[in-house]
Amino acid sequence: MGGATDPGVATRGAGGGWFGGLGPLMLLLLIAGVALLVLGLTRREARPDQPLEILKRRLASGEITKEQYEDLKHALGGP
């Protein structure tokens, strides 16, 4: 029978589990990867300028006249 002299019993648990000690490192890398993925997916990207904001900026800088502003705003469906 098995027992203390059986070589299979003596070597069980001798670094064979958890990839020989690399398991905790792999687990940390997995957790860090998931965290980075979640942050990357939830982070709001800088949204592009809205058309009306661009028009307001162009009017303020003198690129367009008030009449052009009103025409363009109407064309964009603005209030």
Fold topology:
Elements: H1 7-11, H2 23-42, H3 51-61, H4 66-75
Helix pairs in contact: 3-4
Structure described in brief:
58% of the residues lie in helices and 0% in strands. The chain has four helices and no strands. The chain is rod-shaped, with a radius of gyration of 33 Å.
C-alpha Rg (nearest Å): 33 Å
The major sheet is characterized as: none
Low-confidence stretches: none
Helix count equals 4
Portion of residues in beta strands equals under 5%
Q: What series of H and E elements makes up the topology?
A: HHHH
Helical amount: 55-70%
Quantity of strands, as a count: 0
Q: Report the principal-axis shape.
A: rod-shaped
Average per-residue pLDDT, rounded, comes to 79
End-to-end Cα distance: 89 Å
Structural class: mainly alpha
For the structure shown, list the relevant keywords.
79 residues; mainly alpha; 58% helix; 0% strand
